Amino acid sequence: MLCYLGVPFAGPVLPLAIFLFKRHTSAFVRFHSAQAVSLSVTALLYTICVLILGSMLALDSLNLGLAVAVPVAALLWLAILAYVLRAALCAYRGDYYRIPSWLCATIVR
Predict the structure, then answer these.
(1) Residue 105 is assigned to a structural domain of this protein
(2) Most buried of 36, 39, 65, 81 (most Cβ within 10 A)?
(3) pLDDT, tens digit (0-9, with 9 covering 90-100), for 7-19
(4) Residue 100 included in any domain
């Protein structure tokens, strides 16, 4: 659960540290920490893409860049937060939960 809750605040650092230290002790911890690392890296890549899009649109008009990039970034982070909270709750209960592949690319197994 700590891996998922660290995603919005620490990015991939906390989930990666837990994955590296606990991957050999428990398959359950390995599954959830690997998924949290993958989600945080994917979210970071999505954020970079939104920044690039906003920067390109800002070359035409700053208002246009902000009008497109800010809502897209907000919706993206709300979706990620919803799935992070759901996965953290499932991890807390001892259940496996797979974050949908349209949101999270598998980077670490």
Answers:
(1) no
(2) 36
(3) 877 778 888 888 8
(4) no
pTM to 2 decimal places: 0.83
How far apart CA 43 and CA 95 sit, in angstroms, is: 23
In a domain, 75, yes or no: yes
Query: Is there a domain that residue 102 lies in?
Result: no
3-state secondary structure (DSSP) of residue 84:
helix
**Spatial distance between the Cα atoms of 3 and 19, rounded to a whole number of angstroms:** 9
Print the domain residue range for 74.
2-93
pLDDT digits (tens, 9 = 90+) for 93-104: 999 999 888 888
Q: Which residues contact 75 (CB under 8 A, 6 or more apart)?
A: none
Instruction: Please state the domain count of the chain.
Output: 1
Residue 74 half-sphere exposure toward CB, CA atoms < 13 A: 6
Maximum Cα–Cα distance across the chain: 53
